[in-house]
User: Fold this.
Amino acid sequence: MSASIHSRRGILKLGLAAGVAAAAPVALGGRIAPAARAQEQVTLRFFHKWPEPEQIAFYQGVIDAFQAENPNIKVQMDAVGDEPYKDKIRILMASGDVPDIYFSWAGEFAWKFARAGRALDLTSAFNDTDWKDNVVNSATEPYMWDGKLFGIPMRINAKFMAYSKAKFDELGLSAPTTWDEFLAVCGAMKESGLTPISFGNQFPWASSHYVGDFNAKLVANDVRMADYRLEADADALFIDPNYVEALSRFKSLNDEGYFNNSPNGISHDQARTAFIAGRSGMIYLELEEFVNLAESPMGQDGFGFFQFPSGTGGAGDQKLITGAPDGFMISSATKYPEEAIAFLKYLTLPKNGKEYVKQLGIPSASVGAVTEENAIPQVVEGVNQIAAASGLALWLDTDMNTKVVEAYLPGFQALLTGSKDPQGVMDDVHNAAVEAQTDQSDQ
Assistant:
């Protein structure tokens, strides 16, 4: 399986095409050594960001099977939603009350835990066993810091523009491949009286996916990564004019009436519901959300998708797709490192990866997990497109220093209300980056 990846540069290249058709290798058991099993009962705290019933059902099924094989280990699961998770895990980290196994986004979100000594070094456990044969190795790179592995990917995700086949057929439209073609599609929909794009920005991570994609396509990669990693000279941080162009393109979608009214007032889930109901022609979705469309009245045959041509003509890499692996880390303070490793190994077995895809429709990072037998065609094709891309540009809101993110996110909402212009947002981002860089140098 190919693996060309530069996680420290915010780009992830995944060799997944073989994983779609490859047979799963012999399963790696999650049992720990007999001596350890003979010890007194231990409890592992397992914390993640998927409280939805179907997600809980999957994880509980894995927990039950693991506990049956390891009767001295109890796994206690807790889950909260995406936005609350960011706050809660920071509070737990600050208090020192860190769960034994916890979810983390890839990139800077994970690296800060590694830098702070909050994550267990998994390098030997992963490389010196057949664990590495059961996980797409290239997807582990964004969890590496200073040459060591601190997290294990559970799934792989990316962003695509989904569209209603019925609406496109009615208007005689085809999937655009350039920014100008995309604007023409939006214009045709608006002219017909149809909202072109459903967009919910109540939580501005939704904007960050747009702007992150614009940045990746418009800003030269070496410049962008020096800024994201705060490695540029202070006076040069985030001053490239293409950042302003990125925000201008994003703002234009709202100014031209291509988004629904008041996107800051509705959630992403509400926007997806509007798209399913036929109130718009397109929506920017994560690959894992395709199953929501397939299981809705729209049906599996009712939608198509294309890579968002956000930055045509820019200095960045047009073959990047915005996305990232999602995974888990183990607390460096856990009292039970062997047991925690055993559970994480078990969780990422290919047999569980295949079940994950089958039950939830979400691409797993386990080798050979996504197949034509357990995934809808759009998910299989999405995985193939990820494999064919030059890499993944990691989620903007988890791939930057927190202070920079906290300047960017409200700026996105301000752009949509007209209370700030693109240059004003980037001035705030530059100032936040300079402050964050100074903080780092003082540590």
About this structure: The chain has a mean pLDDT of 91.
